[in-house]
Amino acid sequence: DGSGKAERYYVATYIPYGFIGGEGTTIDGLSFYFRPAEMSDIQYWVSTALPEFGGEADLETVEFPIDEFKEGFNEMKFKESHIIPKNGLYVGCSFTTSPSDEGYYKYPINCRKSDFQYSQGFYYCTSSNTSWTTRQYDLYMLILSGGKLNDNSVKVFVDDNINTEKDLNQTIDVTLLNT
């Protein structure tokens, strides 16, 4: 998703209490999947509410080192673990893109239409639309968590069209749904 314009983006998802685990479950970091657009000022954050556009998250914001940025998943741990409270947490990323007319590079937010009935979708706002909007899409994002996780509560969803050669390792995208 994206516009191809030079813009500041805020992208987030909501993690409800009990979705990952019970009392004491923490958010320790995030890993976002980015397309190879030119980006700057990348920040990962955790908050009890969606921050105002241009504002700061109320719990923690960490700067992602731009010299470590690459196409694909970019992982960053928070300085401290954040316990998921009864009213949940928002986790997200903010970044600035350069303009691009090239199709693939115009869309820095990697997401797909949600097929799952439990999907929360994601929230986003940009410098051209500073109000938070929700999309019924799933972000390509990993949540690093700890503490007491739910037992036997993960379903794995894999695309049907996976092919590889014998004795060749291949990385594939799977979606895990905490049920």
Attribute tags:
single chain; 13 strands; mainly beta; 6-stranded antiparallel sheet; 179 residues
3D structure, described in words:
This protein is an all-beta fold and 179 residues long. Helices cover 0% and strands 48% of the residues. It is built from no helices and 13 strands. It has a 6-stranded antiparallel beta sheet with strand order 4-3-6-1-8-9, with no helix packed on it. A 3-stranded antiparallel beta sheet has the order 5-2-11, with no helix packed on it. A two-stranded antiparallel sheet has the order 7-10. Strand 8 (122-126) and strand 9 form a beta hairpin. The protein is globular, with a radius of gyration of 17 Å.
Low-pLDDT stretches: none
As a percent range, the share of helical residues equals: under 10%
Strand count: 13
Number of continuous helical runs:
0
How many strands, what sense, and barrel or not for the largest sheet? 6 strands, antiparallel
The strand order across the widest sheet is 4-3-6-1-8-9
* Structural class based on helices, strands and sheet pairing: mainly beta
The SSE string, one letter per element, is EEEEEEEEEEEEE
Based on Cα principal axes, name the global outline: globular
Q: C-alpha Rg, in Å?
A: 17 Å
Quaternary organization:
single chain
